[in-house]
Amino acid sequence: MEISAINWLAVIAASLVGFAIGFIWYGPLFGKPWMNAVGMTEEDAQKGNMAKIFGFTFVFQFVMAICLAMFFYGDPASADMINASNGAFYGFLTGFGWVAMAIGVNALYEQKSWKYIFINGGFWTVVFTLMGFILGGWK
After folding, report:
1. pLDDT, block means (10 residues), the chain with 139 residues
2. Distance linking the first and last C-alpha atoms of the chain
């Protein structure tokens, strides 16, 4: 594994993309349907410890971005083949094929709605697609 091949600024940028998308996705775009799907009110949301939530969100997304970057650059022979477009494609496959499907499996056992699966799975599909785009394009 060539960890030295990773662009750490790109990893940080890819880590932060979830905040921007999340602000839109769980705000004006799907905020109310998502709250309904998880059984949360706006009052419940305001009771959350935002420093803890945002802090751990960054740490978790940073780990996700590092792992995606390791897939891209872990093998020096294949690292040169990664660019923005196929980075976005591999990010999409990661977000949709692994993360969204894992959310779907858990949601089925938790007896969550399809709305819950589509909102959360769609979010991670978009985030990983953009993470892949950033990591693939910014070498």
Report:
1. 83 96 96 96 92 96 96 82 95 98 98 98 98 95
2. 16
Is 119 strand, coil or helix?
A: helix
Measure the CA angle with vertex 36, ends 32 and 37; round to 5°.
115
Amino acid present at 79: A
* Interatomic CA distance for residues 89 and 5, integer angstroms: 20
What are the tokens at 1? 């594994």
Dihedral pair phi/psi, residue 105, rounded to 5°: -60, -50
The pTM score is: 0.94
Instruction: Centre a 10 Å sphere on the Cβ of residue 32 and count the other Cβ atoms it contains.
Output: 12
Extents of the domains making up the chain: 3-137
Q: Which two tokens stand for residue 94?
A: 């990661």
> Cα–Cα distance between 16 and 21 in angstroms, integer?
9
